[in-house]
Amino acid sequence: MALELEGTLRQKLGVQSGTSARGPWAKQEFILEFPDGNFTSQACFTAWGQDKVQELDKYQVGDRIKVSFNLKSREYNGRWYNDLQIWRIAPAGGEAAAHPAPSPVPPEPSYQAPPAPSISDMPADNPEDDLPF
Question: pTM value?
């Protein structure tokens, strides 16, 4: 399942590396803060492989980024663990959104409200009308 999410890079954890039966490996986890309704949420993503770790190095804490990732789960000793593995990372909204242009000031509305009614605009008392309202 491929998913995408835009947010702010809040923290980069240390690079982990080692050697397995298949050869050397490297990974780095990072925290992404993203809007979730009226609140913000955070999620921990994993950049697997030296090329993804190097790609993550291009971004600093506070940068707005867009990540494409796969959601994976695995079981270990009766417990389940989720892993958000990125396969692409890019500036949020493309390069142009990194430095947005100032938004123009909207023009003043051309609508003018009518003047408030005065006492002379009120209907005259009618003795036939006995309703209290």
Answer: 0.66
